[in-house]
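The following record pairs a protein chain with its ligand, zinc ion.
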Amino acid sequence: MPDVAASPAAPHVTRREDYRPPEWLVPDLALDFTLDAARTLVRARLEVVRNGDHKAPLRLDASGLHILDVRLDGETVNYWFENDVIRINVPGDSGTIETEVAIAPKTNTQLMGLYESGGMLCTQCEAEGFRRITPFPDRPDVLTRYRVRMSGHKAAYPILLSNGNPVASGEDGKAGTHWAEWEDPFPKPCYLFALVAGDLVANRDNFVTRSGRTVDLAIWVREGDLPRTEHAMASLKAAMKWDEQVYGREYDLAMFNIVAVDDFNFGAMENKSLNIFNSRYILADPDTATDMDYDGIAGVVAHEYFHNWSGNRVTCRDWFQLSLKEGFTVFRDQSFSADMGSEAVKRIEDVRLLRAAQFPEDAGPLAHPVRPDSYIEISNFYTATVYNKGAELIRMLHTILGPEKFRAGCDLYFASHDGEAVTCEDFVRAMEEASGEDLAQFRLWYSQAGTPKVKAQLVQEGAVARVLLEQEVPPTPGQKAKQPMPIPLKLALFGARTGAKHDDRLFILDGAKEELVIDGLTEPAVLSVNRDFSAPVIVETDRGAADLAFLSGRDDDPFARYEAMQQLMLDTLKQAVSNGEAAHEPVIEAVRETLANQALDPAFIAEAVLLPSEAFIGDHMKLVDPEAIHRAREALRAALGTTLESLWRDAYATHVANRYEYNPAAKGARRLRTIALGYLAAAGAADAPAIAKRQYDAADNMTDRQGALGVLANGDAPEREAALAAFYDRYRNNGLVLDKWFSTQALSTRADTPAAVEALARHPDFTLANPNRLRSLVGAFSVNQRAFHDASGRGYAFLADMILAADKLNPQTAAKLVPPLGRWRRFGEDRAKLMRAALERIVATPGLSKDVYEQASKSLA
Ligand code: BES
Ligand code: ZN
């Protein structure tokens, strides 16, 4: 059973300003596991050393453990055990602590600590799971050398893995059992500990580092999954090479293992030399994984690998510094993926995610700085702000300093802090020292929450243009007044007559109000600003449809081009929502020009011609009217589909492939083709369902198949039910693909989606116990704006029911589902009331976890 906070009404708040160095260090730890799913025995021997001049007792975190024995220097010792903390008086300045505890992996439904998944045993310790395995100072600034012994039944657990290198193994005296010992030479925080025991097979390969060392690579999966590990292996090798080339970082052990598990709270975990992955980020073949899945695998494999330096060799002092490793590593994985494929499309995808997940967070009740000041439950702070805004901060440093100075700053950071647990401040200081630039004001990006708003206006008189820039950082919970921040804006001026570029520069807006004068213009100019999305801000300009259409066809920065098109679409849709109608022609003409432009990459065209999502449109309205937004967007989609029908048919025919290939060009073609199909369906073309069904039946890959299914799922043609049934029958034994079956239906734009989702929650294949399945239905539904915000309020009640049911099993995963309810201020009174009622019902539930309590109570404020 999960821990229930003693009193969720007055839970303990942890504050950054209260940080104190650890009173005791643990340089060495020996662990001995007697593995059994029902009852595992864990014996630990900790060498403890007093840190500094004080009399404080040794403090060990211990959560959900059955404590059998505690000894100091071989003798039974008195200890205090209160609120999940063991305190022991150690008279000298060092000692040996031995503990023995029992834990139950089989009934561990939280998936934190040691748990069972599909017959194997595995661990998840970040952030505070190690205390659920053995008593230990569970904080990232205690660095320890590990020696781990595991023993268990050979039949159930033929493979025994831990961090570092295998040092010994053998058969036990007891029949049918064996053991293995592993040693990790690198001192590490306990959140990086890992153990895996199971019946697994490996895809083996190797990588020769640039200094000539051979690293043995292995990806461990169930036997039948072996053929689906090739892409993950190729991605790992590409990531290892890239980190050497771009950051000069080499891998540091002789072995690197990855294990895939089906039940996992997150995407993946960077445990030292033993990464553990949600199987969705390892397993792929053309029949079961989409292009998006392939890209996700490459990105996540790279991300966890990159942590070996940005996170493991240099780790976090405390969890408030989480962005130190996560923001930096997300920036690194984004750069890697950009280098492996289309830089422009990758930037568009990253910005789309930032705007869909982080901007609303920054504008709502759960807003917090990239380096938070306090938390109740740290697992609630693995947020889009810490990750994605954090990555934008690192990107801004890269932009402001330039690639060479940025690299020098990284080198200095790694060299001066290798083997240490440090802070975001240490990172910025290394950048400052290596570059000689003053980053005093830049530090505000770490401490101030809220997305800055930038007003940009171009005033031209003859040859002289003035660019007027203003910034404002909005108030957020606990932060009323804000200071101006340094905002790096890439901007350019284009001649409206010739399309010539007249200026292109990086301007750092560091005051509340600044003016930039550009002389020597020979024609009226159009302003392109925040090009390449150089700063994570909301830009407001007075550019009209003509300027936006011009930029969408002429700007030489692909992101700015995409952005101009999005702005044009958004302005049109906002007008349609408020007035009931709007002129569609400027959007249609801009899309026509983009579609017809042979010089453009089809992958880019696909992004550019997509309308902003209903949720994104809502984010730009004073109050969200989900039905009006849905109608306006569908009307524009239909107009685009009808008016440009022959172009969509051309695109559909042109981008057909003879057979499946995985490369950027083939991916772009597939994406544009299914988007064209979507527009034909939106146009109401009589043959659209038949074309979709044909695409479904003929598909030799999951991208085309799921693409066709998604188009059918939004409509009501008879082909819809047939395709959904066929998909289910074909993939009912593949959990990852079945997740797609659930999410496709939960994301449907049909009016009956709320009822369909309620029914799917009673489907025999639905389970609250598997985080992927829970997210595929409930998580997907909650971002489907029209369905979730059904005026009846049934969507809110359903989500609350699911959160409460899931909380009993897995509080962390349940808490991640709360934020959509916290957006009540953005909706009209009727919906706001219903959303608040759902949150109030959650908060009033006895036995609530502190995870859900924190998210729901803060969401009401
Ligand atoms: N260190 C995290 C895993 C993690 C997440 C542990 C949350 C504890 C709580 C890992 O490096 C990570 O960030 N994983 C991401 C994927 C990544 C590509 C952004 C995840 O799991 O979503
Ligand atoms: Zn990470």
